[in-house]
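Q: Could you fold this chain for me?
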Amino acid sequence: MNLRRKLARAMSRAIADFKMLSDGDRVLCAVSGGKDSYAMHDLLVDLARRAPVRFSVVAVNIDQGHPGYPGHLLRDYMASRGHEFVMINEDTYSIVTDKIPEGKTYCSLCSRLRRGILYRIAQEMGCTKIALGHHRDDAITTLMLNLVFAGQLKAMPPKLVADDGKNVVIRPLIFCAEDDLAAFAAEEKFPILPCDLCGSQENLQRKAISRLLADLDARCPGARRNMLAALANVRPSHLFDAGLWQKLGLEVAREETGSEASAALAGDDDDAGGFVPLSRLSDRSIV
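A: Sure. Below is the predicted structure, expressed as structure tokens.
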């Protein structure tokens, strides 16, 4: 299976499973100029041409005032292909560098400011959905960050309603592997824009966790795939959230069947630990 088809199938499965798109949607596709958002935009535009539901896509980029920001590369790319595209100029760079001490990471504040701008622009443009380019590896990295640093069992929701109650955010690439997206970006020769503000900061906890996951995947092939599958194969009765037990009406956990226990003990089995490969999850597709 070629990369485009592989990624399109994974994306369409996510869209179908979580009902991300409805007939008549206008999707604000947040394009940063990185490999993931380029790929998401390309796949969504292609899907819009042949999906049974009618929706439109508008690419939006925020020029945040970074010195030497090569926004023209993105403008030229979108224009050359006739895509609907809007670039918003908002100097969040000055705000971030003023508020965050030197040596500290900018990502949290920068992300909040950018998200607020996207919410406002989506309302002004009449967009019903905001598509962000987070992928499988972003989701499991967030899961690990929350486990290690926040004491929470939480990843990224594939679909959410913003605090304002007006904007709906979707993550169509949530089942797509980063390596596949990187290979696809190279194959399509997307003009990648570097992130000199935060991408150059090497002391990010997220980068440390990403390296840890890469090492784990090298030692235990398929680890990241199984971690993603685990997010769709939750056993609430085997967790310690008393509030969740109460909401679900659980009073006691039930012992696993012999087959389940055997699978959990089979270290080299595809279902080791009770994980379910993505190929066995929903294969529903809107393409």
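A (continued): The beta strands are 25-30, 55-63, 85-89, 129-131, 159-161, 168-170.
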